[in-house]
Amino acid sequence: MRLNASAPPRPTALSLLLAAVLLLTGGLLLGAPGRADAADPLLSRGKPATSSSDEDSSLTPAKAFDGDPATRWASAEGSDPQWLRVDLGAASTVSRVRLSWEAAYAKAYRVEVSADGATWTALATETAGNGGTDDWTGLAGKGRYLRVYGTARGTSYGYSLYEVEVYGTTDGTTPPPTGFTVVAAGDIAAQCTASSSSCAHPKTAAQAQRINPRFYLTMGDNQYDDARLSDYRAYYDKTWGAFKAKTRPVPGNHETYDPAGSLAGYKSYFGALAYPQGKPYYSYDEGNWHFVALDSNSFDDPAQIQWLKDDLARNAKGCVAAYFHHPLYSSGGHGNDPVSKPVWQILYGAKADLVLNGHDHHYERFAPQDPNGKATADGIVEIVGGMGGAEPYDIETVQPNSQKRISGPYGVLKLDFTDTTYSWQYVGTDGAVKDTGPTYTCH
Description:
Shape: elongated
Oligomer: single chain
Distance between the termini: 38 Å
CATH superfamily of the largest domain: Metallo-dependent phosphatases
CATH topology of the largest domain: Purple Acid Phosphatase, chain A, domain 2
């Protein structure tokens, strides 16, 4: 247990006398460690947190910053080093860090700060930790990020913290939102080329490239009709393949029709882009957003469902977007697809913000709704963006909460994200904006 960042000077007779006088006159400030920092606010409560590992899905980084002394973060067991990091949200001067260890404590660790999350400066170093509560006071570190970096475990288990409390002051300014743009489309490469004036996917690819986003999403049925590798090379690769390295795809039902095997051509063409975590479903972060890419052909696979639950439990970002092929709600020819409802229920429970789909060949946006189709402010916004190049479908049965539908003009979704909001436009191949969605704030 540690109460100060450095050892106090050896007391003298005069200092002991002064201390006694202060106590007798109500000098209770001496009873609180870090009293010089008492006026500094708590900066870390509820802030986004990440870690080197988690023991399981119930012991996530956020649990160390939730203010609940009964919850905790725990790393994987038996491995050094491990770390726990919090984003304070703005450049800050850190004056105090209080650590409440569980039985799995650190014998040796550092408290570090960073301006960018990449280069770290040590604020405090422990080499003989014994668990309990470590209260580092009198600090003067500057940075937006703080981490506890464990280098030697005190037990055979991992590292586990009930709470990490970071006190200090911000620099008085709020950093501007970190913004980025994404282009998305589904149902893309019909078996035609630019030599045909009626071939649409060369035109949607050109428009997508003109927007020049941070990256591209595909919502399945990337290649028609059977998504063979030879067809990918002959059609998709000639248009959308120009920015393949910046594409983060998911498969549609046409990817399962390949005579060489379900998803065979898709996997061969995209490789690790489509299987970065070894499965046709994966996740990644950008800014304050967590993106989840799913294979809706196998929503009946318990492994994918469990992975989704675990992935969302680990998420430390403030906003969540998911994308897959089959829409739960659609006013087009395929209509509503109940196969997606269990996934919607998981996403809704995790306070996800946005779902992107293809399958029906039209553009449509919905008001926020829950998995049962009830309009609600805390619901998920769904966008169908299946106008990437395949033949359009008619609007057939308009669904409740559908706000806008376009069938006919091909185009792409231009999605604009900040740390706290999202908005979008449906942009036609002629560059004209066909629809502008509302700006929503993340849940």
